[in-house]
Amino acid sequence: MRILIWAAVLLSLALAQGGTIGTGRIVNGLTERDVETLLRQEGIPFERVGNSKYHLRIAGVRVVLLMDRCQSGSCEILTLASGFTMDTPPSLEEVNEWNQNKRFSRAYLDSDGDPWVESELHLRFGVTSETIRFFLAVFSKETLPKFIEHIGFNP
């Protein structure tokens, strides 16, 4: 029994160390290389446009991926955001309706009155690679398409 407990403790410590993206590994930060590997694995087209900033193509629209709170090349926060230029943008009330009824994202009107939707994932205290993939999938397959429908945008 003691050996089993020690094995569990050692396994927990090994998993908590974090590191590069890999199935089942717990990470508390990602490098640009990690993010690029993950995007390739998920088949998401991307272009690096600056330090810790990428343009992705999801659901036919451009999505910005920002990496934030970076130290020594490892970043603790991933943000996915997409903005829409429209002839008739939604009202503030319509945007607020999104925020009242949806979880895991927020919407707002920028200084030009264009609608934006964004989601953040905090990695600091450890997440698995599956959690990061789930974050990408929820934004790609749920948040973005439903927001596009909510605001009446035609890509």
TrEMBL record:
- InterPro entries in the cross-refs: Put_sensory_transdc_reg_YbjN
Protein name from the UniProt record: Putative bacterial sensory transduction regulator
